[in-house]
């Protein structure tokens, strides 16, 4: 009987250690909310690089407008080309943006996958983390 109690106690201690380790292993950064205000506004497309040949592609739009209500519009000057919603996510210390195109279908790879978000001074850089590896570079538009 004494041996059974010792085994039961060891099992309970082991379970408590596993639970504590699991709770400590969870990184609170994964649940952090990125600063949406940094991406809001109208951005002028400066360049697209990457792709299979590394030359990017010619876009049929030249402005990206991202709003506080998590909607975006891709414009050719002032003409609406595409619109939809976006969601920012923080993962492994990096910020990603997921674009969901609305009713207007797009044949460009822009919405194909989440993009890593980075800033270089006054530039916004959106990069595909996989596959075609397109990189979009924007400057803040002057209104």
TrEMBL record:
Taxonomic source organism: Haliscomenobacter hydrossis (strain ATCC 27775 / DSM 1100 / LMG 10767 / O)
Alphabetical keyword list: Signal
The protein's name in its UniProt record: Lipocalin-like domain-containing protein
Top-level lineage group: Bacteria
Keyword Signal listed: yes
Signal peptide region: 1-25
